[in-house]
Amino acid sequence: MTSGAEPLLSVRDLVQEFVVRDYGGVKGGVVNAVSGVSFDVWPGETLGIVGETGSGKSTLARSVLQAPRPKSGAVVFRGADLVTLRGSSLLQARRHLQMVFQDPFGSLDPKWKVRDLVAEPLIAYRVGDRAARRRRVEAVLELVGLDPAGHGGRRPRELSGGQAQRVAIARALAIEPAMIICDEPVSSLDVLIQAQVLNLFEQLRAELRLSYLFIAHDLALVKQVSDRVAVMYLGKLCEVGPGEAVYRQPLHPYTRALLDSVPGAATARPAAIRGEPPSPVHPPSGCRFRTRCPRAEQRCADEEPAMRELATGHSVACHFPLVPVAEVTVRSEERIGETPR
Amino acid sequence: MNRVSTASGPLLEVENLRVSFPGRRSELRAVNGMSYSLYPQRTLAIVGESGSGKTVSCRALMGLLPQAAVVTGSARFRGVELLGLTDDEMRRHRGTNIAMVFQDPSRSLNPTMKVGNQIAEAVRVHQRVSKAEAGQQAIELLRLVHIPVPGRRFHEYPHQLSGGMRQRVMIAIALACRPKLLIADEATTALDVTTQAQIMDLLLELQAELGMTLMLISHDLGLARSCADEVIVMYAGQIVEQASTPQLFARVRMPYTQALFEAIPRLERPSHAPLPVIGGRPPDLSALPAGCSFAPRCRRAADDCRATTPPLAEHEPGHRWACWHPIETPVA
């Protein structure tokens, strides 16, 4: 869905690093949490980001929101580069970019009533008067499927997980954002409740023409809600493309490995990839996936693969993508023969 | 997956297991009459939502429930009744006969103790061996669960290991006395998808190698489908459907199982297609409705569902379900 002349959110070469301190505050190393990530989100589109724990997907989300500020890179949202903005201009620019977190009970103040929680962003942005705010709170609660009279007076602990997450969504929607960043928004919910909340996200998207940056570790879940999917590994994107294409014909060996690891396929599963992700303090040279990749060669260690577009809108950062391109056709086929499967 | 003949008699026979927690005003009935048999070297998956009683029913077998719990019924392990054993007798069962792996390895391991010593400790609780000998066995166990360089890992603390490694250590501890039955309670839920696949492969491999019986407790029907021989679906403390895995997925009969199955986003589904959902929430376990406990949320519910509880009966050979109006058409 590439409607609209320019992207709503455009992220370029985003880098976020954290310094690890050893005993006595000595600099122990640098965690390369996000290393040069670029992507666009178009109006009305959902971009899904999948990756394992520690791949930097949550850090990416927070860096986009400038909380904390990224080390370098550009985050252009509705024409303004958030990285260069300060104070009230940042606050105003960020108004249309809201976030929903994983654990609603951790993100909602347990002492507040639901209607006050939902009204807080309106007060923060000085929207309307008291009566207008109350009307808005009621409208938003209705929108997410809660009863303003019944649920409005409750406190978070009196709600179920699904209801609490609806409150968190209502809070994000209150000031009419153009885009919501969702970081594992349904991971803490039971399957049946999860399905209800996922359907709510879809319904809101259609009704309000929202864009989502949807972050999750569950591939099937990301496919369910996304137009385009980006796969993240150790602080870098390794594949970006239309959801259906990425899942039907993955180009990056890591995407293939992730897909193969999903349980529940009716047929027997192929062998899982070996080992565990390396430490982001000492990422491997060249391609960061090479230490676990069945197709890795010397070139992967020497040279970092650049993101290149192999099909329309479908890009991969790999020297030896799974679908052979003219240049690497012969070598890829040779490799397949050797790869233990 | 093992296809072993079921002629040798069940390893575990559970009959009318009930667990309740008496409260001041009402009692919370967590497990309401559960009966099943588990045969040696088979893999059984118990699937259900949070609060369906799957964990409580397994903890009852291990004698791991709080004092307040009232457990009735019968659970025989190779003919020996497990319920009502004294603490001492139960301790002899745990580890050697039944062992358990829990969901969160970082909370089950002692953060101030080297992982090797934690495994050696489990060895020494059940065997009269010297410390050095137990240490040797611990290294063997680390090797068994495929931890690279076990000699070095022995001396590391839990925080130095990744989540997948820690879960491997937990499995090593559970295997210390070569249990006949291993219960994995959401053992892979907290792990990443690639690590989850590795741990499941390890469990199935160890099962074949050591001739263990495996019980997987999970909320994930997909996991059950790819790893288990037999599946039990629980709702509100009761078994609502039970069959061998191929039989169950060929033809789901209980509307709840179907709802659970359809609500999972799957890779085969097109993007943005609305998920079929059912409204409502699981019933309050301290005030269960009359009749079928799923009836208030069920689209097929009729008056008889709300009046009488459907019994769990074997309607087809090997396929048990508790429903008055089962689904007739096969699921896609």
Description:
The complex is a heterodimer of chains A (341) and B (332). Chain A has helices spanning 57-64, 87-93, 104-107, 114-124, 130-143, 148-151, 161-173, 191-208, 219-225, 243-248, 253-261, 298-302, 329-338; strands at 9-21, 27-41, 46-50, 72-77, 80-81, 97-100, 179-183, 211-216, 228-233, 236-242, 308-311, 314-316. Chain A is of the alpha/beta class. Chain A has a single domain (9-338), classed as P-loop containing nucleotide triphosphate hydrolases (Rossmann fold), CATH 3.40.50. The longest helix of chain A is centred in the middle third of the chain and has 18 residues, at 191-208. Chain A is globular. Chain B has one domain: 3-Layer(aba) Sandwich (Rossmann fold). Chain B is built from twelve helices and twelve strands. Chain B has helices at 54-62, 87-93, 105-108, 115-126, 131-144, 150-153, 163-175, 193-210, 221-227, 245-250, 255-262, 303-307, and strands at residues 12-22, 27-38, 43-47, 70-77, 80-81, 98-101, 181-185, 213-218, 230-235, 238-244, 313-316, 319-321. Chain B has an eight-stranded mixed β-sheet, sandwiched between helices. Chain B has a four-stranded antiparallel β-sheet with strand order 2-1-4-5, with helices on one face. The longest helix of chain B is centred in the middle third of the chain and has 18 residues, at 193-210. The two termini of chain B are 24 Å apart. The A-B interface holds A 52-53, 160, 190-196, 198-199, 202, 217-221, 223-227, 243-244, 247, 257-266, 268-269, 271-274, 276 and B 49-50, 162-165, 192-198, 200-201, 219-223, 225-227, 249, 259-260, 263-267, 269-279, 281.
